Amino acid sequence: MKQLWRAQAAAVIRLELKKTLFARRGLWIYFLAFAPVALFLAHSLVEIHLHGVRREMARRMSRPLTEADFAAVHEGMTRDEVVAVLGRPAASRMQVRTTVKGPGQVELTPLESLQYSDGRTELIVWLRNGTVAGTGTTSGISLGQDSHVFAGVFQFFFLRLAVFFGCLGIFMNLFRGEMLDKSMHFYLLAPIRREVLLAGKYLAGLLAATVIFASSTALQIAAMLVQFDSNAIDQYLYKNHGFAEIASYLGITVLACVGYGSVFLAAGLLFRNPIIPAAFVLIWEAANPILPSLLKKVSVIYYLKSLCPVQIPIDPAMPPLIALLVSNAQPISAYVAVIGLFVLSAAVLATSMKLVHTLEINYTTE
Fold it and tell me: What top-level class would CATH report for the domain 54-139?
């Protein structure tokens, strides 16, 4: 009997996987999932261009410079003193600022900016009346800085919005989509237990969601790393636990699909309109930091936040709502988080097993 159930579940998975991955109504899920990839790729391309500009400036310098040379420039130095320390600038720009002092009184102030580069950092020296009025440096973003940016995008956009609404679209349509297409009766008239049907549909949705969102996570990381040289990437992967971070992000993505998938599968059996459960679950997940300790555990994001390898620092100037979403006042261990999420998902799926027995077809109300 169990062999029959496995064969039936496998057949359901094959049918549902094809419908889920290639359905036209699911195109927006791909856009939502892969939008961060385009974001990180665009960021990397801009950084690659700026790095090329800084290297080209360094080649035009009269001699190689270091950050120590840049630090030697200070306010009050003359233009000749700056050139003596740094050499001929890679580029310069002059302009004259006109200031009206009174009737018939105009003051002309010559301004000049000198640009230098050591290949990684660009120094701009501002001159007023031939003396240094200020300096400024710009340099490329480090891999450590980008890893914090990635953590922010992953926690705020990818988990809370992309995976959330993606699982909403995938798992709620497993049953509601059949109702809208008026094809649910084919399954219910077939000699298959409803528990097997639900298990097959859930596994198909989980496979589809995992393929889509885990691929997006991997491509986001690749797009983030493409701007850095091989030495920086090797340092990150082999000495700064980069492989462990990447594995954590991929694992969290899969667990998010497990958790949100079970929730929205049950919602698809309970509600006709997806807006109602989506709004409720979204508010519940956002309110998790202020919920009592017991209610926190009835939330997918509670477990996912404790698994994130990079914690986002809370800036004092950060808006209170954003700071609340970032905070993780009661973090739990990774083992407890994984087990807790599986227990929560199993409880929701057990409820779905009971709900599927009450499922009735009434196409006239759809």
Answer: alpha beta
